[in-house]
Design goal:
It is built from 19 helices and 12 strands. The chain is of the alpha/beta class and about 550 residues long.
Length: about 550
């Protein structure tokens, strides 16, 4: 279901300098941003102007980090409709362009999520960018509102409560409903006044405050996964301030957010079929079946065997549901999947599996995200004139921050989540039949069924802003159909599809798309048409490097 566009007629008065006027004609309604030198009279008339007047106190982020990596903290309104009210601290970082003469502007970076911290992104992205890009842009990282050092939210969730990928089981459904209700209630109890404002639209507004504070007329942007949706929303809200936007591994804005979880199930089926064909062609090596049907039957026999009696592998007692959960994303990498299923089959038949060549998908699952030591944290307190405080001294982030931020955004961004638990039951039963690998996991009940309404409806993305969409053909988290959906919504964009590309994340990993993306950032020239390319044999994409840095796994964007 497509989200409805925000309606006109909202009385936001003078704050239009940072907010687009809320009418259907968004592209022509974005006013000029506050700039250094704004008069006191103007600031009095426009309460948001003061946010653009902040002067960050930049300092070295960390003694162990490069000296060029600087951090600061700025203030943003919790609620942009009440700019004189409560504020949040937003942690921002930068690495300046390496050539003052060739500098073009700033390149904001986002790693995905929702809930992924991006403050250190300039440091680890710099080696992946060409010298020509680094000459032209200050690399700008930031932790989005509610994340990391930017007023991090916590719901006090334990490991059981962060385990949200749940198969449908009639006997366990009421327990799953109670789990979803508990997560929503715990988040509301700790963050009730804040939750409606932890949205992609407000993060886009925060990005525009960053732009104004940095003294830039426009921003360029590189966003991965969820970051593609954030970038697309920015282009919808601030089209005249979008310069060169690279959107890598794309979210379909028409599917946010339940549909984006459900597309994992939809995308897994062709990936499984491709794997079965590839593996059958190599039966002499893997011995899983001489035809695609035989290979598929071998896998499903293992699932059925584990449902009768769990299979012990890599320290885990695997049920059939556990195999389906862990294997979904694995099938997008055909060789890895074949090796993993061979090891599973060996374990089921009492043989000692060969050592895993890569991290095994069947190892004990860690908590939903890697976690830091817990420190109680709450969003910034009462409203005050933005004094641009220095960057905080690396406070510990709540252990459940990424999970809390994920649900905060996913649930508040859109009002399309069903409220009736029985709808989830019906959908899970239906989708298990449609998409046997993951359909019931995707459509089972989520905390959003019990979440409060976000401050605004979802953003309908549909514009002609220039951008470059990058997409692997075989991506488990944002499948190809998702990238194609964003391309349809952004009519001024061009898309590069890496045929045969496997994994989540394209730019900076050595694929055939890197040259096109680099040329666009350097020259501003988009390809004349959408492109497909194939990474040459012997120049394999470094598919394991970027995901180690991005906050994604089998349960995030």
């Amino acid at each position: 279901m497509r989200s409805r566009r925000i309606a006109s007629g909202v009385a936001l008065g003078a704050i239009a300098t940072l907010l687009p006027v809320l009418t259907p004609a968004v592209a022509s309604a974005t006013g000029p941003a506050p700039r250094p030198g704004t008069t006191a009279a103007t600031q009095s008339a426009d309460p948001l102007a003061r946010y653009g007047q902040q002067k960050p106190r930049w300092s070295r982020c960390d003694a162990a980090a490069p000296a060029a990596y600087e951090c600061a903290t700025i203030k943003v309104p919790l609620d942009y409709a009440r700019p004189n009210g409560r504020t949040l601290d937003l942690a921002v970082s930068r690495m300046k362009a390496t050539s003052a003469r060739e500098r073009r502007g700033v390149l904001l970076l986002n790693p995905g999520g929702p809930g992924g911290p991006g403050l250190d992104m300039p440091v680890w992205m710099a080696p992946m960018l060409s010298d020509d890009v680094k000459k032209r842009y200050d690399l700008i990282g930031f932790d989005p509102r509610g994340v990391g050092r930017s007023a991090p939210v916590s719901c006090g969730l334990n490991d059981e409560e962060t385990a949200w990928q749940r198969p449908y089981n009639a006997a366990a459904f009421e327990k799953d409903v109670q789990w979803a209700r508990t997560v929503a209630e715990k988040c509301r109890a700790r963050n009730g006044a804040v939750l409606p404002h932890l949205t992609t639209r407000n993060t886009a507004r925060d990005m525009d405050v960053v732009r104004a504070v940095l003294g830039e007329k426009k921003i360029s942007y590189l966003g991965y996964s969820y970051g593609t949706y954030l970038g697309a929303v920015y282009t919808q809200m601030f089209p005249r301030r979008a310069d060169r936007f690279v959107l890598d591994s794309a979210v379909d804005p028409a599917r946010v957010w339940r549909g984006m979880i459900q597309v994992w199930a939809e995308g897994a089926e062709p990936a499984f079929a491709r794997w079965a064909t590839w593996t059958a062609e190599r039966n002499a090596t893997y011995k899983l079946g001489a035809t695609p049907a035989e290979v598929g039957a071998t896998f499903w026999a293992l699932v059925a065997r584990a449902d009768r009696e769990p299979i012990e592998l890599d320290g885990v007692s695997l049920t059939g549901d556990g195999i389906r959960l862990r294997a979904r994303a694995v099938f997008f990498d055909v060789a890895y999947a074949a090796e993993s299923v061979v090891r599973l089959k060996d374990a089921a038949e009492g043989r000692t599996p060969a050592p895993a060549a890569r991290a095994t998908p069947f190892a004990p699952a860690p908590p939903s995200f890697a976690r830091a030591a817990e420190t109680p944290a709450a969003p910034a307190g009462p409203a005050a004139a933005p004094a641009a405080p220095a960057v905080p001294a690396a406070p510990a982030v709540p252990v459940d921050n990424m999970d809390a931020a994920f649900w905060s955004v996913v649930c508040a961004d859109t009002r399309a989540w069903p409220r009736d638990p029985e709808r989830y039951r019906r959908d899970a039963i239906r989708d298990r039949a449609r998409y046997p690998l993951y359909g019931d996991f995707a459509s089972n009940i989520k905390p959003c069924a019990f979440w409060g309404r976000g401050a605004e409806p979802a953003t309908e993305v549909g514009n002609s802003v220039a951008a470059l969409v990058l997409q692997n053909e075989w991506d488990s988290q944002t499948p190809l159909v998702s990238g194609q959906g964003l391309r349809r919504a952004m009519k001024g964009a061009r898309m590069v599809t890496v045929l045969g590309g496997q994994g989540h994340g394209v730019f900076g990993l050595g694929s055939c798309a890197d040259a096109t993306a680099t040329a666009y950032l350097v020259t501003g020239r988009l390809p004349a048409t959408d492109l497909t390319c194939r990474t040459p044999a012997g120049q394999a994409q470094r598919s394991t490097e970027l995901p180690q840095r991005l906050p994604i796994g089998q349960d995030r964007f």
